[in-house]
Structure formats: structure tokens, C-alpha cells
Amino acid sequence: MELNTALEEISHAESLEALQALKVRYLGRNGLLTQAMKTLGQLSPEERRERGRTLNEWKERLEKALEAREATLKEQALQRRLEEESVDVTLPGLAFPSGGLHLTSLILGELLRIFRRMGFSVVEGPEVESEFFNFDALNMPEWHPARDMQDTFWVEFRGEPSFTIQGPFGERVNELGGAVLRTHTSGMQIRYMIQHTPPFRIVVPGRVFRYEETDASHEAMFHQLEGLVVGEGITMADLKGAIAELARGLFGKEGKARFQPTFFPFVEPGVQFAMWWPEREKWLELGGAGMVHPYLFKVVDDYRERLGLPRAYQGVTGWAFGMGVERLAILRYGIPDIRYFYQNRLSFLKQFKG
């Protein structure tokens, strides 16, 4: 064994694994220096002393060389790791993806803020509705042709024959008809009037359902916003003023509204309303409205009387409107297909997130 050769090999070891191999080779149980130590017993006392001293010096120098090289290799490994993991604080940060409100929620929130500024309260109603509140009480009895305009999802409660559709005060209304997924939010007009006495101003946001084939302009589920105002001396002028204020809230101070006569069974007279969009210089047809039909007030008072409540809707007038939330978004942003709203198309949704 040559000490200088061993020291040179240790000083040139390129890794901790190679260094460990050299340590085993020279100082291990069967290493070269260990084997040399085992031969000392074959020497004379004088030779053993001299040879033992030399071998001990070699062992000490080898151990120091191994420790020094190990420290150097570890320092080099740490430096490489720091270089690999170093962070350039001058680089721009990573933009992590974030969620946001759905386009429908954004439009609905905008509409509700406008009506709250006008003093309206926001109320909600059940999505599973009785045939009475969804149709009959809105002047659409079973034989009325207006029912044909709304293909309906009828609901069956399997295994629960005693399931009840509740009225405004929790009363059973099963005997007044079957259960449907509401086709419009207008049923909440009747529910609210039974529970409250005028004057009041409310808007009703919510999902509605139509049983129809889907295409670019039709979807089985969408959102509506219903409005109802009842009190003494309420006129079409009040309705026109509210819709005009909505137009200004949506499209700026130059926004305005126009009415065109039409028919809805629950208002008389009825109108379609459009809003002027100054930026695009075009009219947007957005919904229907009109004066609350006297039949609805009679239905409400009759219902209240059955519940032992005083009649409250004689001598009052009111107006109501309804509009599609997605329709406003489609017209405002030029969206070509209503199905994009609920297909979880991130390429579409992330354009509008709030």
C-alpha cells in the first residue's frame, strides 16, 4: 500500500459514493491498512514498534484526508442545490388561476342592485311549485291556450304519496293541482300577495324550467327576474318609469325604454318592453310587462279569505314585469349559444368572471 497514492485518490474522489468506496478500501474491516495492521504480530518487538507507529500515522492522515474531502464534496453539493433552487426575485410572479362569479350571477347582481336603489325588496320562491300557483292563479286554467306556450316538467314523488306542496302559510295545496318545476317566477306574485298587504315593491330572481329541445336559443333551464308593485293609484306611467330607470342603470344616462302592446293572461293591458342601447345604437327586446290583471287580485283575496285573513286587494292597482337574465347577457355580449352558460366551458366562462 502506497500512502501517497491513497491520498491522491481521496483528493480526486468526485462523489460521496466514490469517497465511501475508498474509505472501505483502505480503512474497512478488510481494507489494505487493516490487513497491514494484522501482520504486526509477525514482527520482532523493535520492528513492530516502528511499523505500528508508521501505520498509525498513515491511518490518521487517511482519516483526515477523508474528512476533508467529504466536507468539500458536501459543500459542492449544497452549492449546486442552491444554484438549482435559486429564485430570481426580479422575475414576474406566476399568475395562479382563480375562480369568479358566473356570468348569470354577475348580470343578476347588477339587476338587483339597480332595483334595490329604487326601493325594491328581493324575495325568492320555491322551484317545485303547485299547478295552482304556477298556472291557475295566474289566469291560466287547464283549458287556457297560454299553457301550450310553456312545455312543462311535471313532478311525481315516487314512494311519497303524501308529499305536499305548501302554500304561503304552510297549508297544503295538493288539492289545487299537481306539482311542476316552475315555468316562470310569476307564481311568486300570488304567494307574496297572500302573505302581505299593499303597498309593496318586490323583485323575484330565480331559475325556471321548460320542457323543450335545446338549441342555440332554447335551454331547459334558465333564469328570470320578476318584478311586482302594488298600491293605490299605480299606473302604466309608473311601470314605464321603472323600466326606463332600469335601462339607464344598465346602459347609462341615455338609456330609455319603449313599450309595444301584447298579450299575457296575468296582466291587462300587456306590453313587450325594449331598452335602447346607446353604445350600439339598437333596441334590445328584453321582456314582458303590464298592469296586474284584476283576476289575480280576486284570486288572492279569495285565498286570504279561506285562510281567515281580511281581503286586502280591493281598490288597488299594480304592475308586473318579467325578463330573462341570460337573454340580457346574450344581447349585451353577442353570445351565439345559450347552452354555453351551463356547459362548464372554461374558455367561455373565464371571459366574464367577476
Give me a quick take on this structure:
This protein has 354 residues and is α+β, with helices and mostly antiparallel strands.
Relevant CATH superfamily of the largest domain: Bira Bifunctional Protein, Domain 2
Task: Please describe the biggest sheet, giving its number of strands, its sense, and whether it closes into a barrel.
Answer: 7 strands, mixed
What's the order of the H and E elements? HHHHHEEHEEHEEHEEEHEHH
Instruction: Give the distance, in angstroms, between the N- and C-terminal Cα atoms.
Output: 78 Å
DSSP summary: helix tally: 11
Number of domain units: 2
What class, by secondary structure content? alpha+beta
- What is the overall silhouette? rod-shaped
Unreliable sequence segments: none
CATH fold-level topology of the largest domain: BirA Bifunctional Protein, domain 2
CATH architectural category of the largest domain = 2-Layer Sandwich
Radius of gyration: 42 Å
CATH class of the largest domain: Alpha Beta
Mean pLDDT: 89
EC number: 6.1.1.20
Pfam family, one: Phe_tRNA-synt_N
GO molecular function, one term: magnesium ion binding
Binding site for Mg(2+): 268
Explain how this protein is built:
One of its GO terms (cellular component) is cytoplasm. Its EC number is 6.1.1.20. Tetramer of two alpha and two beta subunits. Pfam families: Phe_tRNA-synt_N, tRNA-synt_2d. Belongs to the class-II aminoacyl-tRNA synthetase family. Phe-tRNA synthetase alpha subunit type 1 subfamily. This protein is an alpha+beta fold. The protein has two domains: 76 residues; 187 residues, Bira Bifunctional Protein, Domain 2 (BirA Bifunctional Protein, domain 2). The protein has eleven helices and ten strands. A seven-stranded mixed beta sheet has the order 1-5-6-10-9-8-7. A three-stranded antiparallel beta sheet has the order 2-4-3. A hairpin with a 4-residue loop joins β8 and β9. α1 runs parallel beside α4, α2 runs antiparallel to α4 and α7 crosses α9. The radius of gyration is 42 Å and the shape is rod-shaped. The chain starts with a helix and ends in a 5-residue tail after the last helix. The mean pLDDT is 89.
